[in-house]
Amino acid sequence: MGRQQPRVNNSGPPPGDGPTAVVATGHGPVRGEHRAGGARFLGIPYAAPPVGARRFAPPGPPASWTAPLDTSAYGPTAQRRGFGDGATIPEPTIPGAGTLNLNVFTPTADEGAALPVLVWIHGGGYVAGCAASPWYDGAAFNRDGVVLVSLGYRLGIEGFLHLSDAPDNRGVRDWIAALEWVRDNITAFGGDPAKVTVAGQSAGGGAVQTLLATPAAHGLFRAGISMSGSLIDPQERWVGPAVAELFTRRTGVPATAAALAHLPDDRLLALQDELSAPGPGRERLPGPLLGPVADGELIPEPTLTQLTEGTLAAEVPLLLGHTRHEFHSFGGQELTDRVFRDPALAVARARAERGHPTWLYEFGWPSPVPGATEGLAFHCLDLPFAFDLLGADGVAAAAGEAPPQPLADAMHAAWVAFVRDLDPGGGWPRHTAGRRAIRIWDAEPGLAYL
Fold first, then answer.
1. Contacts of 67 (CB under 8 A, 6+ apart)
2. What does pLDDT average to over the chain?
3. Which of 117, 324, 393, 430 could disulfide-link 377, Cβ–Cβ 3.0 to 4.6 Å?
């Protein structure tokens, strides 16, 4: 279908309703809700529900609608099973078929505002997580003049298992489809499609790096923020078929869309558990088996190879970093270094040597909460500081009752400046070949040099 011209309808809510805002998108009008500092529109479909024959297909456009679509509540999540009580980030599981949806938080639904846009991709090891977390609310970014979009995408087997009769990297294709929706519709929400920064943490940080290495994504964003970016390793072309072969050998089920498309979610999760269980056959394969891989088509070569040796993302400013201890409490500092710190340093070093705009950080503020992570700057702890959401649900359990607001002020301001100006400012210099600067986020933020 052709793109409709977006427009804003501020005619007000129907009698008896709370304050609402209606915006026309290319597929139909959406009714969100006003709140202090702006408005939010939750669960907007950016692609058709991935069910039945579409379960393993490339994302296609959603069916159009004419009456305003209620977007006052988060939409269904691809997450059907979270990480349980041990999870740091509260990420609810919401049932429903239309999991390819996104959320828009905006300071103003004014087409002429042309505000910078931050598109957020959640983490969760490519098998869990969702965009409906209170830690991903866009309130502080809206306060500071940034439109925030958070998106859901296919996870696990549905998003990343190589199937002989379906396209690879379906989750990556979902990210691209969401970015295309932003390009086509964000003007109506006050955003500028030419000022999009894509950001994420953990698997979401890996998503940012993957998009930098994906030709089809270029032109859809102008900058990237990768927080604790995680990629499966190795990521070569042989990995996808090898994981699919292991899947069939362990489960007895063919790695095909035809065999899997109509299985219930519980059965698919059980098969995923069989695939991921310890045991023989995994000697050359990555630790986590499901995630983006170089397929030779959508992703021509491994992401780290492209980012350290290629030129595809040379002009795209990149801000990246990690927490000081990441998964230290689970497997020692070696796991943190191998999965997070060393790859980030390799990317920063390679980009610096070729003059690509890069900023590097380490989050070092230690949690005071008693337990296994006491005294550690662990995985995910930096998120409520970057989002300036220290009062959000679940933050006290991770960061204590009185986390330092000045640290959140400084870190969030750097993120806002980067999205707005393509430079974090605040005395944080680029990571260059001659001056390998790294921003240290602690109670007293500072600089170090490698």
1. 28, 29
2. 93
3. 324
